[in-house]
Amino acid sequence: MTVSELDHLGQLLGERPARLHTLSGGDIARSVRVERQDGSHVMAKFRRPGQVALTLEASMLDDLRAAGLPVPETLAVDDDALVLAWVGDGGRGFDDEVQRAAGRAIATMHAQPVGDEFGYRHDTVMGSIPQPNTFDRDWIAFFRDRRLLYMAGLADEAGELPSSFRHRIDKVAQRLGEWIDPAVQPSLVHGDLWGGNMLATAHGGACFIDPAIYRGDGEVDLALATLFGSVGPAFFEGYNEIRPLERGFMTTRRHLYQLYPLLMHVRLFGGSYHAPLDSTLGKLGV
Questions:
Q1: Is the pLDDT of residue 183 over 50?
Q2: Which residues are annotated as catalytic?
């Protein structure tokens, strides 16, 4: 806790908070629970040096909110700080009821028509890494050039991706048409759908934070949600109520779409993610 953070929030909120409580996580931005003078709470994030302005995150939350996805209300924002309404789970945690609600919410967003182009009106960011979102009507080309090969290139340039892995990624890029239906339709995607970004509410609902949005194949959200075991069968029960899974997702495309976040983790954290990357490539027979 620093005086400058308290003063900064005081300027944004119109009153100086009583105190700040550090929240877990925060690799990209420092997150705190803000205790206000009346005893109520809000959440705040502070930008770390070298990271993108938090006004971008507020804009992404606005877009998700407009699409009907439950996200916290934005109370105040500038480039260096973002203040959101506090979402408390009442101690229930991310149980099966909440997972079903989360699955239904994501499926409802994925089911909305968003035009016939993949990408977005501006670039976004996943973690600390910019995501290029130049529009393309061809999903295979978009995923190949602006996700898979783009992230492999960043990991390679950083010296974190051995040449043997880069060769295998290039082989996957050449074979995408074997796994992806060229007729897939665009959906708005959260883009960073893992457990830390899905919150339970006290009334059994779900709320979503820290997006990395664009228009893509909705299955990219589901692939990331399963990568680290963030969701279980109840999530997919809820999802299937609204938008049944397409054949081949669990057996093949889930692993294909997990390559992008795995490569991002290799870029950020290095060799500790070589083993899961190797395993995932092996599941694709590469």
A1: yes
A2: 192
Q: For residue 129, what is the enclosing H or E element?
A: strand 129-131
**Integer Cα distance of 112 and 243 in angstroms:** 10
Q: What band does 23 get if pLDDT is binned at 50, 70 and 90?
A: confident
The rounded distance, in Å, linking the Cα atoms of 233 and 236 is 5
DSSP for residue 93: -
Cα–Cα separations (whole angstroms), residue 217 to 13, 31, 68, 115, 222: 38, 30, 18, 13, 10
Cβ neighbours for 100, distance < 8 A, ≥ 6 positions apart: 234, 235, 237, 238, 241
Burial class of residue 185 in the structure, from the number of CB atoms within 10 Å of its CB (0-12 exposed, 13-18 middle, 19+ buried): middle
Residue 17 CB contacts under 8 Å (≥ 6 apart), including other chains? 6, 9, 10, 34, 35, 36, 37
DSSP three-state, residue 48 = coil
Task: For the full predicted model, state whether its pTM sits above 0.70.
Answer: yes
